[in-house]
Every structure is written in structure tokens, then in C-alpha cells.
Amino acid sequence: MTAFARTDEQRMLAETLDASLGAGDADWEAAVTATGLDSLGVPAEEEGLGTDLRDAAVVAAAFGRANVVLPWAEHWVATRLGARGAGAPRADSPAAVLALANSEDKRRWAEDALTVLHCAEIVGLGRSMLRDAALFSKERKQFGVAIASFQALRHRMADMAMILEQADAITAIAITAFDSDDQARARAVSAARVVCDDAARLLGEGAVQIHGAMGLTAELRLGGYFRRARLLAQGDGTARAHLRRYAA
Q1: Could you tell me the fold of the domain covering 104-247?
Q2: Alpha helices, DSSP H only, in the chain?
Q3: Where are the domains of the chain?
Q4: Model pTM?
């Protein structure tokens, strides 16, 4: 669960998605169209499920936890910008989304919305990386004992848990900032982007180290989680650029 799943409906949505999504093997039809999630982002007066960014973030985090690699953020933002269609993403890249913005204000909003939804997905990915690392540390043994008993690794996992909760909380703050003015939103989104960049790196590297040489092998889900997290962290502008925007 995440800090931005605040209502009973959002918590139920997260739990339903966790139960239904496979380990990264769901396609667009199964994960989005068949479940009715493509109605998120469509206003209720147009017979949609509403335009709450927090709902979209709950879905993004669930996709991250299952490592379902789909252009959900791009789809939702494009839908909010007015794109309509059935059976496929409204947009499958940030460039395709931004092309739909017909003003500079909408373009800035779309960039920030994409960034915060990618942060939510990183939080989901990080939660699964930490879970897998904790479980593996109880199974892997050295010197006849589980490595989970080693103080250095316990400290490492505590640091991983801390950065994950920081990323979760600051992403929730950034989502709330969309109800504020543009400057407050920009600062909050950039802060979340920088923290989530750190979280993607520290959680991935820590989980790989705990798994040892197996960390990036095809046999484990961890490699896919880490690659997706780093890919997301490299988009939406660099962490350095967001630090500059925050400072400005």
C-alpha cells in the first residue's frame, strides 16, 4: 500500500490490482481495458471514473509492484488532455502526450503529471525490490546462518526501507500540490523526482547486493524491477535539472 491510497475506494483498488496482476506478464487488454481502468481520467459527466490524479497514482504504483510495464502514465495524462479512444493507450510516449497540450500551461501540467505518476511507479517497484530482498535474506545462508542475521545487511535494509518511505511520502505530497498554484506544484514535483531518483538507485543496488551474483539474472524478478526503475528515473528530465528547478 502507498501513502497516496487514502480513501477506502483507493485502498480497495490497490488490493484488487495486487490480486489480479501477474508478475509482469499482463497486457494492455487484461490490465487496463478489461478492468475498466481506461475510464480513469475521463470526467464523471462524460461517463468516466473521474479525473483524480491520486487514483491514477494508485494504479501506477500497483503496476510497479507487479512490474507490469505499460504506458499507464502517458495514457492517463493524454486522457486528461482530451484524447479519447478504445482498446489501446491514448499515448505511448511522453512526446506523444505533450503534443496534445494546446497551451504552455497545459504542457507544464502534463510534464509534472507524467513525472509524479512515474514517481508512483518507482515507489511500487521499490516496494517489491525491498520485499524480495528481505525474503531472500532469510533464505540465503553463509557460515551456517541466514544473512538476514548480519548486522550490516540489516542496517542496509533499514536504509532501503527509509528511502522508500521518503519516496512514498514525498510523492503523496507532490500529488496534493496539484491543488495548489503552479510554483508550489513545480517545487513539490521536482522534490519528489529527486528523492525517487535516489530511491530507485539505492533500493535496486541494495537488493542486487543482497541477492549476490543472482541479483541480475533472468531467473529472478529483481533484475526486471531494477531495470524498469532506473529507466523511469532517467526520464522526465535529470535529477540535476529538477534540483535546479526546485532551487529556482
Answers
A1: Butyryl-CoA Dehydrogenase, subunit A; domain 3 (1.20.140)
A2: 8-20, 28, 53-66, 72-80, 94-98, 104-139, 151-176, 182-211, 222-233, 239-247
A3: 8-98, 104-247
A4: 0.92
